[in-house]
């Protein structure tokens, strides 16, 4: 902040001051990168957590409370949280809007279009209770199942803003801290892209001093949406090799910094 004040005194408080303030949000590094992994699958614990730990990186795992992998491997999730990974909320039953095109996979029981807002909110809060019992934490972030944000035209997350620091969406984009909408954080969903593509996204974030959020499902298999182990490994190696320039942290930590930097109510829709 001293640099911003100094620039202002010199009459340079435009783009240079804005850039300096933006970099301070990213822990005085060139950009922020968040690695997120959805759905609580075996690959998370078998391959992703060990890979992140080996590279001394931390990620966010969005857990579906009803996933059998949560119940069956609960001590491993707890240990992951103890090592600094975030256990995020991906709803209790992962309801998606079955009325939308291409949603033949949605079952009647988990059709968000047939939910009430109160039901959705209650299930998400119940998942928070489960997650708190696993990791002992009161602060975390949410990820919209299938990226669906509305029930009957109502944004159900509006009732959940006091419960979370932020919510991750599914639309792609690189944004400065001032541009981030904490109720719908943008991300890049990865499915089959190679390691060069992943690294080039990071380089774009470095050049533009922005936030880059990755959305992964399967890593080396385990999900219909997948990234290969070599591609994922190439990304982690680049992030580790450039840790002096790139801030890699769980979503909750990055979102908290953004929230502190934004004026009250800024970039919230």
UniProtKB/TrEMBL annotation:
GO terms for molecular function: hydrolase activity, acting on carbon-nitrogen (but not peptide) bonds. Pfam families: Polysacc_deac_1. Gene3D superfamilies: Glycoside hydrolase/deacetylase. One of its GO terms (biological process) is carbohydrate metabolic process. Residues 1-20 form the signal peptide. Keywords: Signal. Residues 31-249 form the NodB homology domain. PROSITE patterns: NODB (PS51677). CDD domains: CE4_GLA_like_6s. This is Polysaccharide deacetylase family protein.
């Amino acid at each position: 902040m001293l640099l911003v004040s100094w620039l202002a005194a010199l009459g340079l408080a435009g783009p240079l001051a804005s850039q300096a303030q933006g970099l301070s949000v990213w822990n005085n590094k060139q950009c922020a990168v968040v690695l997120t992994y959805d759905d609580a699958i075996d690959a998370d614990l078998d391959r992703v957590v060990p890979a992140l730990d080996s590279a001394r990186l931390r990620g966010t795992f969005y857990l579906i409370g009803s996933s059998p992998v949560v119940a069956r491997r609960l001590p491993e999730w707890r240990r992951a949280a103890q090592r600094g990974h975030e256990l995020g909320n991906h709803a209790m039953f992962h309801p998606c809007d079955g009325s939308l095109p291409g949603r033949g996979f949605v079952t009647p029981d988990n059709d968000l279009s047939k939910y009430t807002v109160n039901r959705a909110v209650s299930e998400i809060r119940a998942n928070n209770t489960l997650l708190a019992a696993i990791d002992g934490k009161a602060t975390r972030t949410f990820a919209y199942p299938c990226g669906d944000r509305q029930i009957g035209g109502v944004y159900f997350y509006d009732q959940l803003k006091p419960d979370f620091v932020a919510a991750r969406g599914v639309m792609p984009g690189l944004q400065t801290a001032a541009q981030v909408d904490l109720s719908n954080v943008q991300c890049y969903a990865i499915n089959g892209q190679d390691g060069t593509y992943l690294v080039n996204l990071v380089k774009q974030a470095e050049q533009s001093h922005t936030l880059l959020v990755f959305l992964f499902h399967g890593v080396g298999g385990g999900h219909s949406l997948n990234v290969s182990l070599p591609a994922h490994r190439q990304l982690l190696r680049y992030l580790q090799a450039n840790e002096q320039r790139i801030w890699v942290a769980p979503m909750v930590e990055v979102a908290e910094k953004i929230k502190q930097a934004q004026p009250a109510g800024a970039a919230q829709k």
